[in-house]
Amino acid sequence: MTAVPGYGVGIGWRPEIAGFVAALPGLRMVEVVAESVDPGAVPDALSALRERGVAVVPHGVALSLGGAAPVDPRRVDRLAAVAAALGAPYVSEHIAFVRAGGVEAGHLLPLPRTREAVAAMAANTARLQAELDVPLALEPVAAFLDWPEDELDEAAFLTEVLDATGALLLLDVANVYANCRNRGTDPLALLAALPPERVAYVHVAGGSSHGGIYHDTHTDAVPADVLDLLRALTARRQPPTVLLERDGRYPPAALLRAELDAIAAASGHPAVT
């Protein structure tokens, strides 16, 4: 299994908060949505971060690795080009599908937890890995429901995907919280059943409840329960990197710094602010 470097606490880079991110003195890693970057014209703000030694990790959202159809080679080539242009130490994508039968969902959709889905993930992931020069981490997504044809529980399914692909795990503790809360299951039990040695880095994000369903919004503050899960994970294995995802409704800089400080404290990392 390929080891990846650790970077403490990071944040998802977005143009709207580029100035805030640039001013974080202890920052060593950011994540950027891969499809938002032109490999031939990397934004100056990202280049400036790289020049000061901050790692930039592309996070793909559109490959549809879990789809039944073979992954589009043009999308694979573009993601590989973005990783090369950013000098990325690793790349991440999702255990999900986003299109089927020529229809674009516009959203990351959960896979049925079947061995047929594991095989589809393995085949498409192999096509991606063949073009990458760096390790790949796969992220399970938030889901509101389970498929009726599920054969495996979540931990067993994720472990089989990781074993079949040889990929690392991008563990989103906010997704763990959302999925377990909506299903009425125990998030600590799920964390305990996942292989901690496969974790490349960790996502943390905020959410909110509507109509009895918890939504992983990325536009709200990180709940205390998610920070508690991060502490539980850290007690099992110090995560190499914990990254805050925020995709809108950005709070004042002081509140965003406080959230990063809380994540650092929960994961035992030095503050970046």
From TrEMBL:
InterPro entries registered for this protein in UniProt: MbnB/TglH/ChrH, Xyl_isomerase-like_sf
Listed Pfam families: MbnB_TglH_ChrH (PF05114)
NCBIfam families cross-referenced by the UniProt entry: PRK05409.1
Listed PANTHER family: UPF0276 PROTEIN HI_1600
Protein name per the record: DUF692 domain-containing protein
